[in-house]
Design goal:
By secondary structure, the chain is mainly alpha-helical. The chain has helices at 2-13, 17-24, 28-35, 43-53, 71-108. It is built from 5 helices and no strands. It is elongated.
Length: 109
């Protein structure tokens, strides 16, 4: 699951659990639960982890060839990718609306 991928990347980067927990403003035990898939990783936190580890969010989701994904995990990955796509599209729409608003304001001057 995602927790094991986060752990693998964290270890490759040479960071401790304590460091990541501190960066995320959570306890070390809460972070450990996250890596051990004992708690859910919500997208907002996943974004923060990706930022700290200096990787793309998709690194946590895309099929890692060193592990096998069963149908349940595959569905979970697909669901997360769709949710990421939805969030990105929503952010793009908001930015487009802001650009249009600013253009209208400039035209009024």
């Amino acid at each position: 699951m995602i927790g094991s991928i986060i752990k693998k990347i964290r270890e490759l980067k040479g960071y401790s659990q304590e460091f990541l927990a501190d960066q995320l403003n959570i306890s070390q035990s809460a972070y450990s639960d996250l890596e051990n898939d004992k708690s859910k990783v919500y997208l907002e936190r996943l974004y923060k982890i990706a930022l700290v580890l200096d990787v793309e969010v998709t690194e946590f989701i895309i099929n890692d060839t060193s592990r096998s994904i069963d149908k349940e995990n595959d569905f979970s990955c697909q669901h997360m990718l769709l949710e990421l796509k939805r969030q990105y599209e929503s952010q793009l729409k908001e930015k487009d609306e802001m650009i249009q608003f600013l253009k209208m304001q400039l035209l009024k001057k």
